[in-house]
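lol ok so funny story. i was supposed to be doing the assay writeup but got distracted and ended up predicting the structure for this chain instead. priorities right. anyway since i did it might as well share w the group, maybe its usefull for someone
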Amino acid sequence: MSVLIDGLQYANWSEKIFRQMRDGGVDAVHVTITYHETFRETVLNIERWNRWFEQFPDLIFQGRTAADVALARRTGRTAIFFGSQNPSCIEDDIGLVEILHSLGLRFMQLTYNNQSLLATGCYEAEDTGLTRMGREVVAEMNRVGLVVDMSHSGERSTLDAIRYSTRPIAITHANPASWHPALRNKSDTVLRALGESGGMLGFSVYPHHLKDGSGCSLQSFCDMIARSVDLMGVGHVGIGTDLCQDQPDSIVEWMRVGRWTKRLDYGEGSASAPGFPAMPEWFGDNRDFGRIASGLRATGMAEADAAAVMGNNWLRFFEESFGPARSGVNEQKAAAQ
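and the output, tada:
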């Protein structure tokens, strides 16, 4: 079964976007439901999603297991999998990891650019790696089936997460720093370790993460994916667009600033107030995934390998990641650390 899965989106959700998902044949999307929100505020965001599931049951439904991807295909809908881009939602309470998983959270970043209680973000000058709490939370995430996401984390912290996690981790939306040296993009050292550990990288089309920004060509993007396959192995890469469709520029301030500062954080790629850059001409919304698939085949990539990148790899990762940890295998890795 060839599927289409996007490893990360954060859109200004609407019926229009849900219908575009269907027009584009998107079977599943990992959506960001929370950044800097507390636990209670995150629950309110889940309530909002519940209303959308009620209003548009013919278009979307909440995904909890990999089997829901097959259900989405059978019923002509898109499965929505929840994720957090910061650990603010667990506050300082490790017990909330299991609670949020029970509410449907399937991915959680250990940092969003800054130092957190768990790890160091990619914007910090000094990366001290996973904290004591970070190691405990990773172990709890492993136990319940909540994926460790290091998309916005520093190098040492990301390598620590790969080392200490008894289950493969994900970097859901980033690109190789060797292709474009954005703070958020990852070194070949990280990408090699990610592939060797069975993890997943989702390639981002967000312009600040692209070589030549909004002017990045489809060929350049797909050639980059082909080179990454050589580095990591074809089974460990997918798409994680980081699509922020229809969001007002003001939302960037919440993403980057939250409540941690009174000043604007301009972020990478900008010397003025933060805002969303123009998307590359070949990817504007969920109807454009076919262009990426065609671009991959144009690089000489085999049909089966292109299908793996477009969704089959994410499906396998979902199958291995969303349930409770199996006894035996994970304990062996933990004991070896």
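The beta strands are 5-9, 28-34, 60-62, 78-84, 105-109, 147-149, 170-171, 200-203, 237-239. The two ends are 37 Å apart (CA to CA).
back to the writeup now i swear
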